[in-house]
Design a protein that fits this description.
Layout (H helix, E strand, L loop, with lengths): L3 E5 L4 H10 L4 E6 L2 H10 L6 E5 L5 H15 L5 E4 L14 H22 L2 H4 L5 E5 L12 H21 L4 E7 L8 H4 L2 H10 L7 H12 L10 E4 L10
Parallel strand pairs: 1-2, 1-4, 2-3, 4-5, 5-6, 6-7
Helix pairs in contact: 1-9, 3-4, 4-6
Amino acid sequence: MKETLFLTGATSGIGEELAINLSHKYNIVLSGRNIEKLETLKAKCSSENFVYVLPLDLSDSERLEKNIINFISENQITIEKFVHCAGFMKMVPLKLVSQDLILETFKTNVFSANSIIKLLINKRTNNSALNNVVLISSNISNRGAKAMSTYGSSKAALDGLMRSLAVELAPKVRINSVLPGAVITEMTKSIFENEEVSNRMSAQYPLGIGLPSDITEAVSFLLTDQSRWITGQQLTVDGGRSINITG
């Protein structure tokens, strides 16, 4: 019997690539804010397995858990895999950072991941079926950048959560994170169309700028038994950017 995978942020650039690829291997729950985009994505997924659509606003903490519990019950499913691809990012210098921005960022990037994992290990809600989690973090988790303090700290918190839960939930559940560098998606394509910016960024990446498929392959590996002895790890997939100290 095929396992079921729950994917947040399914309609993002990396999320869409993940959804289409993983739908060939698992029954999949596509989650995002926009129901029309989710339905369009569903049509692109494999017809070999079940594809479910679950509209969710991850920043709405009060309704998040209730909506997921109702969804699992109504569809009479259990969820074995969870990939948290959803992310909220705004580049804002510290002097302009508000409490509302911090809260929305952390609710989407960190708090929701914690809530979903908590639900999926619950016996009553999900028959304690969860066995594997991959969190999409960022290479900024271990670095720093101007105007990225809120986003960067949320990703660092996400990886801190990953490490602690990897210990707490072992050996039943493996939890790892993937840290992408710059990836060309529909959202970032316009940035790379600027020749000056593209050349500058490309020079910082020894293997060049990434594609969504590069992230998908890493996630897919961590979800399989080929990585059965890996948990609590940050897998950086950034074309060598984080080790490049060339002046």
